[in-house]
Protein 1
Amino acid sequence: MLYKIDFTVEYDATMAQQGLLGVWGEEAEAALGAKSTGVVKDLWKVVGERKVVAIVDVDTPDALDQILFDLPIMQKMGHHVQVEVKSLRRYEDFAEDVRSRIGREAA
């Protein structure tokens, strides 16, 4: 199953920028490692914001939940990370569904 995940990272006044960058460095290593295995299909950093967008491919929602719990950034500062998850449908499958419905009478 494909999911789009938006991570928005905040930090409080007690954390210096270098502390945030240190945690983000650990997270980058984990994310790029997951990308090399194929679990993470792609990653983007939103310019000018503390936001990362990921497309991941996992078997179940449970597996995704477990992965999210284990991320370095979630373990170290999860209370400052907002995560928004949306499941994705392949566009080809959607297009085929639309084609099969064209001309069909409404129920």
Note: DSSP finds four helices and four strands in the chain.
Protein 2
Amino acid sequence: MLRRTYYNIALALAASALAPATAHAGFYSGDDLYAVCTADKEGKDYFEKSYECLGYISGAVDAFNTTREANKLKSCIPGDVTINQLRNTTVAYLSKNPIDRKKSASSQVFAATRKAWPCPTAKPATKKKTSRKKR
């Protein structure tokens, strides 16, 4: 009897693992990113979380820049900005915008970098006046 109960529990767990889960906009939320980026320096997993934070942010920024390059645009982030500056900028943004941390982490990295280093606005093309010759 007990064996059958364990079997039923295992079957139920397996079935629930196969059920579709709610999809999110990203794998990582802003809350998740904020948690690893602000990990306790005395914690046993501090270095792991620090590398996770830096890796996520630098990967997100690389993805943004790749998208810009594919669209024949330059990066808006100056070339001399360090990964640590990107981290500090992102953490400061997440700290000041706790409501937005429910959104995807990548959207929050994007918002933080755009706020710190805004892209120049494109100027609309001006139409050349065509001169009409008098006849």
Note: The helical segments are 2-18, 30-37, 46-70, 83-96, 105-116.
Protein 3
Amino acid sequence: MSDADVRSIESLDELRQAVDRLGERLLRQGHQVRAVVGRAEQHFARDYPVYWQSQLRRAEQRLSEARDRLSRKQSTAGSGSSAPATDERKEVARWKARKNLCRERIERARTVAVEMEQNCEKMKGPVADLIELAEVSLPNASVRLATLIARLQAYQNNLPPT
């Protein structure tokens, strides 16, 4: 420590306190990022596909109901006359399109879920490193600084007055 130029022990203590605060903030941010990654993974692996599965069931049910209404409309008209069932046909077409859209989204959800799982896995390593830094490395550095500060204070107290 012969070339060290420490002018103030208090400044070292302020540094130690700043390291402690940094550790606390990094730990909090690390846990928040980990939670966001977990929620994103859950959303794309479970929530998104479940939503489109429920929409598919709904579309299938409504398509069946629309076909029933179209069938009833056509049967009440009789064989000789053609009653316009334009609205019913449009509704059947609309629910068929919705059913196809739901199937496409379910397929897309599988692809997106795999991509998101891969991306989330890539994030988990750096987040774990950040949390380890906050839980282990920074507290160790703070303890080392506290030890150095205590030694410097002891040395300073043992100096003869000038």
Note: Confidence is low (pLDDT under 50) at residues 1-5.
